[in-house]
Specification:
It is found in: Cytoplasm. The chain is α+β, with helices and mostly antiparallel strands and about 200 residues long. The protein has helices at about 30-35, 65-75, 80-90, 95-105, 105-110, 115-125, 150-160, 165-180, 185-200; strands spanning about 5-10, 15-20, 25-30, 45-55, 55-60.
């Protein structure tokens, strides 16, 4: 397993970054918060986990090993795959997620796209005793530079499609997010769209 990567950040997209390691550019899928902490042309180190399937190898990256552990822990629950685990970490920061699981906060958990009340209850039952609640994080993610409205819309829709959502709901969620925050950057729009999808 590839447990970490370190190298120059060649590119930052909406749902992944390209990190050069030993002359090879690796596509590392990450949450908006993790991507917001990266800068093109600068060195970065990410904790990673590699998903191996018959037809693909997918690398997921995290700002800290604790986030990677949560990503892997979420997938021990029946019905939770890598896309839902990434969507969970995109909507809820690690401290909020741990607290919601430990306290059985179903309202917070059902903000996650694709998680209804029964799924939230299953998450609590299976993970409550496996998470440690830490002090709230003090550092907020720094948003990237804003792009043009149409370009932002297309980027966010593409990212939602990559997370497994259908085109129509994804487009409606992005339109709703743009209506509420017309000047938001792509990362913030993705978070807002995910939140809207989670309420449906």
């Amino acid at each position: 397993m590839i447990s970490s990567v370190r190298g120059e950040v060649l590119d930052i997209c909406l749902d992944h970054a390209v990190v050069e390691v030993g002359g090879v550019g690796l596509a590392v899928h990450a949450t908006p918060a993790t991507l917001a902490g990266l800068r093109r042309g600068e060195q970065a180190r990410l904790a990673t986990t590699l998903l191996v399937r018959e037809d693909s190898l997918t690398l997921f990256g995290f700002a800290a090993a604790a986030e990677r552990e949560l990503f892997e822990l979420l997938q021990t629950v029946s019905g939770v795959g890598p896309r839902l685990a990434m969507a969970t970490l995109a909507v809820l920061d690690p401290d909020t997620l741990r607290r919601a699981l430990a306290e059985g906060d179903l309202a917070t958990l059902t903000r996650i796209p694709g998680v209804g009340r029964k799924s939230a209850e299953r998450l609590v039952v299976e993970l409550r005793d496996k998470v440690a609640v830490a002090a709230p994080a003090a550092v907020a993610a720094v948003a990237g530079a804003a792009a043009a409205g149409d370009a932002r819309r297309d980027q966010v829709v593409e990212a939602l499609l990559g997370l497994g959502f259908s085109a129509r709901p994804a487009e409606q969620a992005v339109e709703g997010a743009l209506a509420l925050s017309p000047d938001a950057d792509p990362s913030a729009l993705l978070r807002a769209a995910l939140s809207q999808l989670g309420r449906r």
